[in-house]
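Re: the request from the purification team.
They wanted to know what the chain is likely to look like in 3D before they choose a buffer screen. I agreed to run a prediction and write the result into the notebook, where they can find it.
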Amino acid sequence: MTTAVSDMQTAYTDAAGRTLPTATELGAGNIGGMTLAPGLYKWGTGVTIPTDVTLSGGANDVWIFQIAQTLTVSNGVHVNLSGGAQAKNIFWQVAGQTTLGTTSVFNGNILCQTAIVLNTGATLNGRALAQTAVTLDASAVVKPAP
């Protein structure tokens, strides 16, 4: 357990320490409806996803999202992948709480400094790694293929 927590903190610190972002403060924190290419995205605020968003890139492309506050995905919203993008190459580094709304479908690895909450029927294709707690309410976490 100690090793797992240490590894999570190392991954969080690595993602948070990346520099030269592709974009900063994109959409003023609202990325709903957008199609995002691979890269490093940074916000000094929270991020909300009120409508579907698409991550479009190849099988080896990487996305890192640095979020200084909370990440909130609305009910029924999907984070879609296109062009061969893979959940294992997507990292959501979140300083505040992450909340996935009911029946939402989310792709990527969540590295959260506080809590991760998956509400009823939410599906995460990735990993939920939090420094405090992960709460699942009749939801599913599917480990991405290596």
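For the purification team: The first strand starts at residue 23 and ends at 24.
Please add any questions underneath this entry.
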